[in-house]
Amino acid sequence: MAHPDEKIRTVAMDYFLGHFSEFYAAKYDHKDFADLAYVPAVRPGGTVHMSKPSDVYADPECAVMGFSVVKTELREVALSKLRIRDHPSTQSILNVLLETPPSTPQIAQSYFGYLARRIADFSETDYVVLRQAPIIPVVPVTGDLSPNGGLSLTMAKPCECIFKNSSFSTTHAKLFMAVDFGSKASIFLTACGIKDRPDMKDIITLLLQDPERFLKAVGSIDVYLEELRNIAAYQECPKDLTERMRTTPFLVGRLRMVQSSHGSDINESTMEGDIAIIDDINAHSLFSDLVYVSPEEETLEAFYLKLGSPRLTSLIAEECEPRSIEVLESSLSAQIRSLILERACLLLHEQGVRAKVEVEWLSLHKNFVVRCCGSLE
User: Fold this and answer.
1) Does residue 145 have a pLDDT over 90?
2) Distances from the Cα of 357 to the Cαs of 72, 162, 165, 342, in angstroms?
3) pLDDT confidence band for 9 (50 / 70 / 90)
4) What residues contact 367, with CB distance under 8 A and at least 6 apart?
5) Neighbours of 132 (CB within 10 A)
6) How far, in whole angstroms, is CA 87 from its chain's centroid?
7) d(CA 154, CA 87)
8) What is the C-alpha separation between 179 and 238, in angstroms, rounded?
9) Pairwise CA distance, residues 49 & 42, whole Å
10) Which pLDDT band holds residue 277 (cuts at 50, 70, 90)?
């Protein structure tokens, strides 16, 4: 049946099939002839060729993915007598999707429509791979034009897409690429993780992949902050995402710059470095042009603290230095020293603190000294 002469091949195949039950049913195993191309097959383009039994399938619908199928007249006996497989294996399908994904929406509709019939054949491990694989041709959210004037296409991962519908917000429409390959294809793509609308986990994942791109897509700091408020209110965030948030610079901090020529403050925003939480208004007024701070909102401040942002006062160290010579034998220093010794016992008693030394010991001049100077800085 693998003879180079077509007439001889045809006669041999007819004899084999006609006498299969009589002579060959008990002995024939296609694995014994794995290296022989003896099965008449048709390529997706319609070209007839001779195929090895492991490279051809009985189901004609798998041809949309580039697989060869047996000739129409042999389809009924392909499984029972030639004993070839009905469908390509899921690994073969994964290889096609990952190595040569559909390049146009039309091809994608054919691919995913066929795969809707094979949903139960894929393992959860297969779907984990598919959810993160760039297998979907889609118009990017930027809507860029191709050189010929049409909309350009990009290859997207299922986790970056949502089904095209009118129920999701305008903001999310700028972040996730919308797809519609028909109802049959949607069955398979749903199994790959595409949803009608993104959930909070999807939004956080996309944000952490590229915070700057996310900010650019939503269009403004105010809209970005609204997304942060939604994330802050998300109580069921997985631990792995929370850890990624702690190590990814995506929180927004603002720095108050010098006043503009119009008399108003100029604010600068950043996602890099330490962003402090204001816990002392006076301290912030001193360092507002040096330290980036979080928005002054209770929800966002708690969120920033949870992710490791420091309080402003924890970044400030106070140290006093005299800026003039000491005033010797000052009556003011004597008065302050006397007042401190007078009130020390009461203060310690109110605080419930046990003194390490007695007040009488402090009363000795050399043990407790108060000095006076013109000014401190």
Assistant:
1) no
2) 104, 71, 76, 15
3) low
4) 357, 361
5) 14
6) 34
7) 30
8) 27
9) 6
10) very high
| SS3 category, 182 | coil
The per-residue pLDDT for 66 is: 93
* DSSP for 8-60, written as a single string: HHHHHHHHHHHTIIIIITTT--GGGGTT---EEEE-TTS-EEEE-GGGEES-G
Contact 71, 104 (CB under 8 A): no
80 has which bridge partners?
A: none
Q: Which whole number is the average pLDDT over 72-86? A: 79
Buried b (16+ CB within 10 A) or exposed e, 186-222: bebbebbbbbeebebebbbbbbeeebeebbebbeeee
Calculate the alpha carbon distances from 355 to 101, 347, 349 in Å: 77, 10, 9
Positive or negative: CA dihedral 203, 226, 211, 140? positive
Q: Quote the pLDDT of residue 146.
A: 45
CA distances to 54, 100, 154 from 97, rounded to whole Å, are: 19, 6, 15
